[in-house]
Specification:
4-stranded parallel sheet, Rossmann fold, alpha/beta, 37% helix
Length: 264
């Protein structure tokens, strides 16, 4: 029995250790401080044995091209804080519009500074990976954004070789409010903007609840649906060497993404 004033002396032991709960892969995500949706989406999609680590950038809730451009200022520091002892396989900046405004290469360069052990990623790169995997050329795009961001996104997609048949936004400025739009509304919105010639319906923004409606939209329209968090997670998993074909999150997860797998 321990009595006040005693000194503890533990017996020598050899603990039994393994590779930990997340023995298959570790993924890190840099989220905006206002994002109410992505963290839950990633955890819903994470296969057994795959870690999801999250940190957040302090961000302005009024989402414009100008406020998005400031995310880069603390990107390297944020990357360095994502479980550095675990050395995640992939670290991704989880903002579609911010990735577009800042530029993928600049984002990934800053992430590499903070987490040199990880494969750097950003959300819009995951979207490009998924669209290319599907062989998509003609897109319709639905977003929660202001039209100044929609314009920048349309220009970005055209520059990357896609034909934007239509892009429609909800003109919501608050990042928090973007996450309050219901999955049912995203389904109605997607069906409304769909066009017969579209190869894919892309619902853009990491802070929205479109993932929950993706499969229902695919059933209603008969074509693939890409959402920001779904595409990012698919690409990050493949880049970490995880090829699981997940069910319930859209057609993209049935694709192997062979070109993204790490080299031996």
């Amino acid at each position: 029995m321990f009595k006040s004033g005693d000194t503890i002396s533990s017996k020598p032991r050899t603990p039994e250790m393994d590779k930990g709960r997340h023995h298959r892969a570790k993924l890190g995500f840099i989220l905006m401080s206002t994002d109410p949706s992505a963290e839950s989406d990633f955890k819903d999609m994470a296969p057994e044995g795959v870690a999801v680590y999250v940190t957040r950038l302090k961000t302005d809730d009024h989402t414009t091209n100008e406020t998005l451009s400031r995310h880069i200022e603390h990107m390297a520091d944020a990357a360095s804080r994502i479980q550095p002892e675990a050395e995640p396989d992939v670290v991704s900046y989880s903002c579609t519009s911010g990735s577009i405004v800042i530029g993928e290469e600049r984002v990934m360069s800053e992430i590499k500074k903070g987490a040199p052990w990880a494969r750097p990623m950003c959300l819009v790169q995951g979207v490009l990976d998924a669209l290319n995997e599907l062989g998509a050329k003609k897109l319709v795009v639905g977003t929660p954004y202001l039209d100044e961001i929609n314009t920048a996104e349309a220009e970005f997609l055209i520059e990357r070789g896609f034909e934007v048949l239509d892009i429609q936004g909800l003109n919501i400025a608050s990042g928090w409010d973007m996450g309050l739009v219901t999955p049912e509304y995203w389904k109605k919105f997607a069906v409304e903007i769909d066009q017969p010639d579209a190869d894919v319906i892309f619902l853009s923004c990491g802070g929205i609840r479109a993932l929950e409606a993706a499969e229902e939209i695919e059933k209603a329209t008969g074509k693939p649906v890409i959402t920001s968090n779904q595409a990012q997670m698919w690409s990050c998993l493949r880049r970490a060497g995880i090829t699981d074909q997940l069910e319930g999150f859209g057609q993209i997860f049935s694709h192997p993404g062979t070109s993204l797998l790490p080299s031996e």
